[in-house]
Design brief:
- By secondary structure, the chain is α/β, with parallel strands linked by helices.
- Helices cover 39% and strands 15% of the residues.
- It has 12 helices and 11 strands.
- The strands form 3 sheets. It has a 5-stranded parallel beta sheet with strand order 9-8-7-10-11. It has a 4-stranded parallel beta sheet with strand order 4-3-5-6, with helices on both faces. Strands 1-2 form a two-stranded antiparallel ribbon.
- α1 crosses α5 and α5 packs across α12.
- The radius of gyration is 19 Å and the shape is globular.
- It starts with 12 loop residues before the first helix and ends with a helix.
- Bound molecules: phosphoric acid mono(formamide)ester.
């Protein structure tokens, strides 16, 4: 049976902790690190990076991680590939496997397709984002960053984490709620009403920023996922609230995040003294977060980006059985 990493939802807390423990080996002085003894760990392996949605951090950090471990990489995107001639993502994967690819990192916008690919393609698949579904390696690196900043080995018990902004369109929010809850944290989500999920999540819901962040030890800010507003998934769900949401986006464009954005005044007046700020990126400065706060000592944003390499090294090694 091939092991995949399709999401955090299906992992046990022990499996989450195993990934985190493995990734921790690859951090030194709060930066990603590959010990010399690992530089040939994946020699002879080929990792395919299939990105059919834009990416900077995830794509680059998987490539750096693979190369740090001695693997070859091949990148396939939508531009200038046979996807443009109508080839399916499944057929693309199978052709790469026929060429000797050992593991596929896949970002694409169809939630259900990921599960079909995981079931049918005979090499490990890492989900690098499937539409509004999950983004498991982002959640792992966010948890690793927070544990490191809090000086905790493996548990977030007693820690309050708030995720604010566009929750419903965010695969990062989904994976984070799963991972933070599995590590014992109390999680709160909050954002404009049109950006809150319809279904219930394993999280408290706050209807205004002050309530959302007042008790938080860490606040994760999320941008509005403009590329997903009124998306197929929204439209597939035929309830009044869905149709209200689609009408809202059609008539008003992006939701108003101003009431949820974080700047220095908000930090000063509404947040706990030592609370951390996280953001998976890309950040739209001045919308969900001010640059001043993003560059302050409480911000972990660039540390998150660096820890992404450590987590992806651990994931590649784990799934390739090294
Ligand atoms: N956080 C994240 O997934 O960033 P990218 O879209 O740049 O990969």
């Amino acid at each position: 049976m091939v092991e995949n990493l399709s999401g955090i939802k299906g992992l046990t807390p022990d499996e989450v902790k195993r990934y985190l423990k493995s990734a921790k080996r690859f951090i030194k002085d709060q930066k990603p690190y590959c010990p010399p003894s690992f530089s040939d760990a994946l020699r002879g392996k080929t990792i395919a990076l299939l990105f059919f949605e834009p990416s900077t951090r995830t794509r680059a950090s998987f490539e750096i991680a693979a190369k740090n471990l001695g693997a070859n990489t091949v990148f396939v995107g939508s531009e200038n590939t046979s996807i443009q001639k109508g080839e399916s993502i499944y057929d693309t994967c199978m052709n790469l496997v026929a060429m000797g690819v050992d593991l596929i990192v896949l970002r694409q916008n169809n939630e259900a397709l990921l599960h079909e690919i995981c079931f049918r393609v005979p090499v490990p698949i890492v989900n690098a984002g499937n539409g509004m579904g999950e983004h498991p390696t982002q959640a792992l690196l966010d948890a690793l960053t927070l544990l490191d900043a809090l000086g905790r080995p493996q548990t977030l018990r007693g820690i309050n984490i708030s995720i604010i902004g566009d929750i419903s369109h965010s695969r990062v929010a989904r994976s984070e709620v799963y991972i933070f809850a599995k590590l014992g944290a109390t999680v709160t989500i909050g954002g404009p009403t049109e950006c809150l999920p319809f279904e219930s999540w394993q999280a408290h819901v706050a209807m205004n920023r002050r309530d959302a962040i007042r008790d938080a030890d860490a606040v994760v800010c999320l941008r509005v996922q403009k590329e997903r507003l009124g998306s197929e998934k929204d439209q597939d769900r035929s309830s009044d609230s869905v149709s209200n949401r689609i009408t809202h986006f059609r008539d008003h464009g992006s939701p108003a995040v101003g009431a949820w954005s974080i700047n220095a005044r908000v930090v000063e007046t509404e947040m706990k003294k030592n609370a951390f700020i996280l953001h998976p990126g890309p950040v739209i400065w001045g919308e969900e977060l001010s640059e001043e706060v993003g560059q302050s000592s409480r911000s972990l944003i660039l540390r998150q980006a660096g820890f992404g390499v450590a987590v992806r090294q651990a994931v590649l090694l784990e799934l390739l059985g090294v």
